[in-house]
Design a protein that fits this description.
The protein has helices at residues 17-20, 30-36, 45-48, 63-79, 111-115, 127-140, 155-165, 189-199, 211-224, 260-270, 303-306, 316-325, 350-357, 372-380; strands at 4-5, 10-12, 82-84, 90-97, 100-110, 119-120, 142-143, 147-151, 171-174, 180-186, 205-209, 232-239, 245-246, 248-252, 271-276, 287-292, 295-301, 340-344, 363-366, 391-392, 403-404. It is of the alpha+beta class and 405 residues long.
């Protein structure tokens, strides 16, 4: 059963939240973060990407970087830009991006349940990225980036969250990217107990985004058992029917010595292929857009091809990898190949046109987004999804909530 606990959050003053809260540490490069934080001493990038306050040639994994992050975090606390609640609370966090709205519960999830796979994952993690998060958390003695979890929605929880979000928010601002971020504090003991009880009836939570953060939290929990570690990690938990997954498109630098006609002929043997006068943004599962030679094509895998194998095999990203990228373009391991780039759907299919028309890429594929139901099914089966299968939007802002450990 899922255990979610209230905690004493460290959070920004309401009037300073817009200046302080930032995109996740792994969404921007160091150079982009340096530019974004220029002239903004409260920017949370000084904590989440502290190399921006050191010489540009500084190794981002050096001891000095983690020490600088801890120093900057303490400065924000001393200045009062960040403060800690005196009582353990739950919080609601709503994001509105265009017409899409999602409201999640901010809580401390259980490291023990992560290790016992009550909280299920669907991705492999890289040791170097895990180590980075472990060092960052231990330097600050805090988790600053929430793990993005989901659960199969429950009407009872929807009702509680609706009632609580009708109250006055503790934070409400619109970020430069147009996404509105609003938060509410839940400090009623009766409501807290009710939420804990309802989540206690939910068998499984699923990691949507944040596998390295949760793995790092689990490692620290194991190393600190018996030393006062609470065993919780910072999370925002959203009902599955409010999740928004965008496509994760692909672009390949060359055709592996093949002629365009060979690529098209192979696709015709796998399903239906037709030219398109307009860019293809696939609206259905098993459908792809293909762009090369200044021409768009709409492609649909045949049912015979699409329905073979496991749930992982039937993902569109797997079908593309197994039937096109690997056998035709020699992209055997997309995690390691420097010939393929992954393009978040937030950039639109127009970005694919730019990449190919620039001459730096030979072919691009626009994808239909992976469904959240597929992610949960694969997680339940203990499966691992291919890399870059999902792009969740909007992104949770770092600095909105911090969990001291």
């Amino acid at each position: 059963m899922a255990t979610l606990n209230p905690f004493k959050a460290v959070r920004p003053k309401k009037e300073q939240a817009a200046e302080l809260c930032e995109l996740p540490y792994d969404v921007l490069s160091s150079a982009e973060a340096r530019e974004a934080a220029q002239g903004s001493p409260l920017s949370f990038f000084h904590v989440s990407k502290p190399e921006i306050d050191l010489p540009e040639d500084t190794d981002p994994y050096s001891d000095a970087v983690y020490a600088k992050g801890a120093e900057n975090f303490q400065n924000l606390l001393r200045q009062g830009a960040l403060y800690q609640d005196e009582k353990a609370c739950f919080y609601l966090y709503r994001q509105i991006m265009g017409e899409h709205s999602q409201t999640g519960l901010v809580a401390a999830a259980s490291c023990r349940e992560y290790l016992d796979e009550v909280i299920k994952k669907h991705e492999f993690t890289r040791p170097d990225k895990e180590n980075d998060r472990v060092r960052h958390i231990e330097s600050l003695n805090a988790q600053t980036g929430p793990v993005f979890l989901t659960y199969k929605s429950r009407p009872e929880l929807d009702k509680i969250f609706k009632e609580q979000s009708d109250k006055d928010p503790c934070v409400d601002f619109t970020a430069p990217d147009g996404v509105r971020h609003t938060a509410w504090t839940i400090d009623s003991d009766a409501v807290i107990e009710q939420i804990e009880s309802l989540f206690g009836e939910i068998e499984t939570l699923y990691i949507a985004d944040g596998h390295h953060r949760s793995a790092a939290a689990g490692r620290i929990f194991e190393s600190r058992q018996g030393s006062g570690n609470s065993g919780g990690f910072l999370t925002v938990v959203f009902p599955h029917d409010q999740m928004q997954i965008l496509a994760y498109n692909r672009a390949v630098k060359d055709l592996n010595g093949r002629r365009p006609e060979e690529i098209l002929s192979t696709l015709e043997g796998l399903g239906d292929l037709e030219e398109s006068d307009t860019p293809v943004d696939p609206a259905n599962k098993n459908e792809l857009g293909v762009y090369m030679g200044n021409q768009w094509y709409r492609f649909r895998f045949s049912q015979e091809v699409a329905q073979k194998g496991s749930a992982v095999d039937q993902l569109d990203v797997s079908l593309l990898q197994n039937h096109v990228l690997s056998p035709l373009l020699a992209i055997e391991d997309p995690r390691k190949s420097n010939r393929i780039s992954f393009v978040g759907g937030i950039r639109g299919v127009g970005e694919l046109v730019k990449m190919v028309d620039s001459g730096q890429y030979a072919i691009a594929f626009s994808m239909h987004p992976t469904r959240i139901e597929d992610l949960m099914c694969i997680s339940d089966e203990g499966g691992i999804m291919p890399p870059k299968s999902t792009w969740f939007e909007p992104k949770l802002r770092d600095g909105m909530f911090t969990h001291l450990i």
